[in-house]
Amino acid sequence: MKTIIKILLVASIGLLSYFCVMSILTPIKFDETKTAREKEIIQRLIDIRTAEVEYKTQKGGYTDNFDELIKFLKSSKKKTVLKEGSLSDKQLEAGLTEKAAAKIVRSGNRSEIIAKGLENFRRDTAYLDMIESIFPQKYTAETIDQIAIIPFSNNEKFELKVNNEYYNATKIKIPLFEASAHFKTYLYDLNHQELLNIIDVQTKLEKYPGLKVGSIEEPNNNAGNWE
After folding, report:
1. Which residues does 51 contact at the CB level (< 8 Å), separation at least 6?
2. Pick the residue with more confidence: 26 or 82?
3. Are residues 157 and 215 in the same domain?
4. Contact (CB, 8 A) for 175 and 62
């Protein structure tokens, strides 16, 4: 009987030690995994922001439809000014502007170009493939669809919202957008209690329980809630 009691006591101590260790290691492991995953998700949100800004520049407002956004990225061109050379202080003091210098160069008047010292000055406008221009060596027309998917999720898409009818105090129209990923979408496979805990903390603080960029409630310069 004494032997059995000793065995049970040792087993109980071992089990208790295990739970104590796990109570410390589980939150640490959860936070480490959360941090690692969010680095990739944040970059994806930044990419969405970049795409939405380009869309707004050409369309006048944002879109809450990923299909429309991706179609735009695949079919649009980005206007880019290719620059070579710069104006010296002496040229600027003489009243020469970038616009005037570019006009002289485009005219092809060799004598005037030389007289103004613009032999190495170029300002050419080019229209580049949108994806290649804003996401060099990152996405292609075949892979750009990934921009909508939340990393580490079950192939879930970011939530995309827009408010193209927002007016500030001075009655100026300011289009707004936001893209977000809830904790549940990319931490669902981790410790359930730890997940509930961080959601509860963010909710009590009246903060979004996840990662989000932009806001449809008020202008925030399209900032992310991690910034």
Report:
1. 69, 72, 73, 134, 147
2. 82
3. yes
4. yes
- Please give the residue range of the domain that contains residue 55: 32-74+139-227
Instruction: Give the C-alpha separation, 68 to 55, whole Å.
Output: 10
Same domain, 153 and 219: yes
The rounded Cα 173 to chain-centroid distance in angstroms is 23
Residues 88-139: tens digit of each pLDDT? 888 888 888 888 888 888 888 988 888 888 888 888 788 889 999 999 989 9
Determine how many CB atoms are found less than 10 A away from the CB of residue 144.
20
Confidence of residue 16 (pLDDT cuts 50, 70, 90): low
Which residues fall within 8 angstroms of residue 83, CB to CB, at 6 or more apart? 122, 123
Question: In total, how many domains does the chain have?
Answer: 2
Residues 6 or more apart whose CB falls under 8 angstroms from that of 99 comprise none
Number of alpha carbons in the 13 Å side-chain half-sphere of residue 226: 15
The structure's pTM equals 0.78
* Confidence label for 18 from pLDDT (cuts 50, 70 and 90): very low
Q: Tokens in use for 161? A: 């919202």
Task: Give yes or no: residues 60 and 154 share one domain.
Answer: yes
Q: 151: buried, middle or exposed (CB in 10 Å: 19+, 13-18, 0-12)?
A: middle
Residue 157 pLDDT exceeds 70: yes
Whole-angstrom distance, CA of residue 187 vs CA of residue 30: 9
